[in-house]
Design brief:
single chain; mainly alpha; two-stranded antiparallel ribbon; 21 helices; 1% strand; disordered C terminus
């Protein structure tokens, strides 16, 4: 009779919470031990980089699942090279982070939907649904056309260029949980990019060229021996922060007004330090249009531009005698435009690309060449490095038409119009938090669209990460400032984002 009693007691013990916790811990420890043994054995036969990956990947997956916001931070940090002097293959790490973050966002959203029945996942992309679905169809057709029908050798590498759009899923997921965090990511990434660009400009160290570039010291890029480097998509966030700060400084009631006013010269010199003439052109256009964007605050915005011009002129005159090289490099870069256009020049090579790209578009106007399609003959004897690339073209708009046909251009125009129009519709809000974000986003797009004439921004993963940040941010602001009733937009409501977006209630 004692045996059943003992058995029941044992079963009750097993069912107790404390016992279950012990068993779970023992099981977890056993699993960790087995994984450690596996990694140890694998390290003996695998290359060091793969062994490191076996260790880092499970840790990264665990951390991102527990704290998904880490992925949202890591994505722009890696995409923009904001780990200065690091011996990292940023492109490879960016791709891994994007894939990992997307998987985590999708799985966690599915899990929350099953448990709670509702989740705000992808709400920030609701206004972009049609253009993004349209592009997914285009991308798939181009992959089938390029890889299976035309059998292009570079179809996979071409298709992979658009992986930056995965950031839309990551940022939308974070925006649904912590909408206040997205503007902070933009502010942080834009500010770091500006500081690193200025450090590179002033010291000659190749901050964005990795550890090797740092060890080379002041080896420059040819512009008066001043190092040239780019924060990739971070360059556009510097533009965003410049006009965000100008707008903030123009609003009497804005928070941190004095701080952002002091930061304006930093952002301006950071934008100049990119040494991108396309970026400079976009910056100039944005300066002209900025008072129009701030038409409700036109005179204060114009005054801010005048003060900025005078301040930067004074800084330049003061600093030039002590550090003339950066300023001489800027002047030389501007003067080089007059000598461009001939054979062997950057502009000349781009004009040749454009001519051959237009010929390709005329031959394949509807679907284009697909991913990996060669729009010109490969020329290994070319004088400049990028000239021999038969699948690469600097002009973003021609690129999209070469690869996707006329529908590629339609997508670019539709997406750009949607971003700009929805940002412009936020003009009626009285919130001193929304208006600078709106102005920064519009000026971001001006620089983006302008530089797209000479840089393939629509087909570079790192640049698309920056664009994804802006798209999701506008969607988040829109959902709070422009609520819907059914399928129709209702009247604007002044919902202060101190409580809604930038300063949500503590839960």
């Amino acid at each position: 009779m004692k045996l059943p009693v003992i058995a029941c007691a044992a079963i009750d013990h097993l069912r107790s919470e404390s016992a279950l916790a012990v068993y779970r811990n023992v099981g977890l420890a056993t699993l960790v031990g087995l994984i450690a043994i596996f990694i140890g054995l694998a390290s003996a036969v695998l290359p060091a980089i793969l062994s490191a990956g076996l260790i880092v990947l499970p840790l990264a997956l665990t951390a991102s699942w527990r704290w998904p916001i880490l992925i949202a931070i890591a994505t722009p940090v890696l995409a923009f090279g904001l780990v200065p002097f690091a011996a990292l293959d940023f492109s490879r790490f960016t791709e891994i982070t994007l894939i990992l973050g997307t998987v985590v966002a999708l799985l966690k959203s599915a899990n929350e939907h099953i448990r709670a029945g509702k989740t705000p996942f992808l709400d920030a992309l609701r206004y972009m649904k049609k253009p993004l679905i349209f592009f997914m169809v285009l991308w798939s057709i181009a992959l089938i056309h390029g890889a299976l029908i035309s059998k292009n050798h570079f179809a996979a590498s071409d298709a992979k260029r658009y992986i930056g759009y995965l950031a839309l899923i990551i940022f939308s997921f974070i925006a649904g949980k912590k909408p206040s965090f997205l503007p902070r990511i933009i502010i942080g990434a834009g500010t770091l990019s500006a500081f690193f660009l200025i450090i590179q400009l002033g010291t000659g160290w190749k901050v964005f060229a990795g550890f090797k570039g740092f060890m080379e010291g002041g080896a420059g890029s040819g512009f008066e021996d001043v190092a040239r480097g780019s924060a990739m998509g971070g360059d556009y966030l510097v533009i965003f922060m410049l006009f965000y700060s100008l707008s903030t400084a123009s609003l009497p009631g804005a928070r941190h007004r004095a701080l952002f006013a002091m930061m304006i010269p930093i952002y301006l010199f950071g934008a100049i330090a990119t040494y991108s003439r396309g970026m400079w052109a976009g910056l100039a256009i944005a300066f002209i249009i900025f008072p129009i964007i701030e038409y409700r605050n036109f005179f204060r915005a114009s005054r801010s531009l005048i003060i900025l011009t005078a301040t930067c002129a004074a800084i330049s005159v003061t600093v030039y005698p002590w550090a003339p090289r950066p300023f001489d490099a800027i002047a030389g870069r501007l003067q080089s435009i007059t000598g461009e256009g001939g054979r062997g020049t950057s502009v000349g090579a781009r004009l040749d690309e454009n001519a051959k790209g237009i010929e390709s578009i005329k031959s394949h106007p509807i679907l284009g060449l697909g991913h990996g399609g060669e729009y010109k003959k490969f020329t290994p004897q070319a004088e400049r490095g990028f000239v021999n690339e038969a699948t690469f073209i600097h002009n973003s708009y021609l690129w999209m038409m070469v690869k996707f046909g006329i529908f590629g251009l339609i997508f670019v125009l539709a997406l750009s119009w949607k971003i700009l129009s929805e940002a412009w519709r936020l003009q009626n809000t009285k919130s001193h938090d929304i208006r600078p974000l709106r102005s920064g986003a519009i000026c971001f797009m001006i620089a983006w669209l302008t530089n797209g004439m000479s840089s393939p921004v629509w087909a570079q993963a790192t640049d698309l990460v920056a664009l994804s940040l802006i798209i999701v941010m506008i969607g988040t602001l829109r959902n709070n400032a422009l609520p819907r009733t059914g399928n129709h937009e209702v009247q604007h409501r002044d919902m202060h984002l101190e409580q809604q977006v930038l300063h949500p209630p503590v839960r």
